[in-house]
Write a structure and sequence with these properties.
The protein is α+β, with helices and mostly antiparallel strands and about 120 residues long. Helix content is about 30%, strand content about 40%.
């Protein structure tokens, strides 16, 4: 009977330790999901350099950047992504610009398309 009690005690302690590791892993996983929040009233002058943090607030990320950009008609005239995606140089064209922002966290990657008006 004593041996059975010790076995149950050891298995119970092992279960509590495993549950602790599982809960800690879940907290780390949810902390690693990036959040991209576009800023309001995004209007810039044509021919300027737009920084990533001028267009969006990004939380809980390891790496983030502008990964693609295109005008409303689908062209990429005058658009150059610089500094490994931290900013984009726009040409002299005016109109609606779509910027795709990618953020990678510990556990997931998120992407967001942000519309910018160039005047």
């Amino acid at each position: 009977m004593k041996i059975l009690k010790r076995i149950v005690l050891v298995l119970g302690a092992f279960g509590i330790i495993c549950a602790g590791f599982l809960i800690a892993g879940l907290f780390r996983y949810t902390r690693g999901v990036p959040r991209i929040t576009p800023k309001n009233d995004l209007t810039f002058s044509a021919g300027t350099v737009i920084n990533l943090h001028d267009i969006a607030d990004i939380e809980k990320y390891d790496t983030a950047g502008i990964c693609d950009a295109y005008w409303d008609d689908g062209s990429v005239d005058g658009l150059v992504i610089i500094n490994e995606g931290s900013s984009i140089r726009t040409g002299s064209r005016k109109g609606e610009l779509n910027l795709i922002v990618d953020a990678r966290g510990y556990s997931e990657a998120r992407s967001e398309t942000i519309k910018v008006k160039m005047v």
